[in-house]
Design a protein that fits this description.
The complex is a heterodimer. By secondary structure, chain A is an alpha/beta fold. Chain A contains 5 helices and 7 strands; from the N terminus they run E-H-E-E-E-H-E-H-E-H-E-H. Chain B has a 3-stranded antiparallel sheet. The chains are: A alpha/beta, B mainly alpha. The interface between A and B is large, with 48 and 47 residues.
Chain lengths: 200, 122
């Protein structure tokens, strides 16, 4: 929101409209650091867009208003100009199962997803992985290193999350620009490794 | 952002009022990251029949091109509504998109490589 953070003075160059655009999803359970990572990397003050879901896609969560047939889900996102001709958008992806239709819509045209996880809440990551895998979206896992979170070996993390051997697993600090950028670089290398040789 | 927000962000008005009762865009090909810009002829076109929301979008676009998601966020409109309004403005010739929209089929290796290279330069 333009007025949500008055001290945020980042100014991204205006866009011409003929730049190429790319989209990456930042997924993860509630509190995993999605918003923080978008905040850290975005060159514009992060924005929030919302999508309205009708009852058909919502499932059972109608507790807030009697007879309510619509649910709104907000998505944080940010923007980075990677070159004069290329703009990258980072979207914080809703992690709740009931927002699957919104996530599916968001995944169209996405290159892949970075799945953030907090080792204090590892089990909350499993349903996220199911959603992302259900979309056939390639991903990398980034363990957001919270100060008091338990430290597991990579082997243990891979085992409990049942990761494919090729799925990258990195540790990052979502508050740190270098560290967050490195996590995205790992994701991009992974996406390139999945590209068929024939099309190179 | 006071102008567009003031004209486009009336949260008390239900979404279907803004869209004139429509729930699907005439051209439903606006991805979140499709960049929208004013058409060359936009300054000459009549705006009197446009809604405040349409005009809010055109005001924003007079400063910079924006993605569909950014327009929705600045105007405080749900994406589904934003897509319909943009389809209107496309139909009336006020706006244009220069890139072909979502690539749902086939990997764009060059795009992957360029994103990687761009991140490495940061």
């Amino acid at each position: 929101m333009p007025d949500s953070n008055a001290s945020d003075t980042r100014v991204a160059p205006p866009l011409r409209g003929n730049e190429r655009t790319a989209k990456l999803l930042i997924a993860g359970h509630f509190g995993a650091g999605k918003t923080t990572l978008v905040q850290t990397l975005s060159q514009i003050t992060p924005l929030s867009t919302e999508e309205v879901m009708t009852s058909a896609g919502v499932g059972t969560d109608h507790t807030d208003l009697p007879g309510k047939t619509k649910t709104t889900v907000a998505m944080d996102f940010g923007r980075l100009s990677l070159s004069d001709d290329l703009v990258l958008y980072l979207f914080g992806a809703p992690g709740q199962k009931r927002f699957f239709p919104v996530l599916r819509d968001l995944s169209f045209g996405s290159l892949g997803a970075l799945v953030l996880t907090d080792t204090r809440r590892l089990t909350d990551t499993y349903p996220i992985l199911e959603l992302i895998e259900g979309l056939a979206l390639p991903y990398a896992i980034a363990v957001n290193a919270f100060d008091d979170a338990p430290v597991h070996t990579d082997e243990r993390l891979r085992e409990v999350m049942d990761l494919e051997p090729s799925t990258p697993l990195v540790t990052c600090d979502a508050r740190d620009r270098r560290s967050s950028t490195d996590a995205l670089i790992v994701l991009m290398r992974h996406l390139l490794s999945l590209a068929p040789e024939a099309s190179r | 952002m006071n102008g567009p927000r003031a004209s486009g962000g009336d949260r008390l008005v239900r979404a279907y009022v803004v869209t004139g009762g429509r729930t699907a865009a005439a051209r439903n090909h606006f991805d979140h990251i499709t960049l929208i810009s004013l058409s060359a002829s936009s300054p000459q076109l009549d705006r009197t029949r446009l809604t405040p929301e349409h005009r809010g979008a055109l005001d924003l676009l007079s400063v910079s091109a924006y993605s569909v998601a950014e327009l929705g966020a600045h105007l405080v409109l749900p994406l589904s509504v934003m897509r319909i309004l943009l389809a209107d403005l496309m139909e009336s010739g006020h706006i244009t998109t220069q890139r072909q929209i979502t690539q749902t089929t086939g990997l764009d290796i060059k795009l992957l490589e360029d994103v990687l290279a761009g991140l490495q330069r940061l």
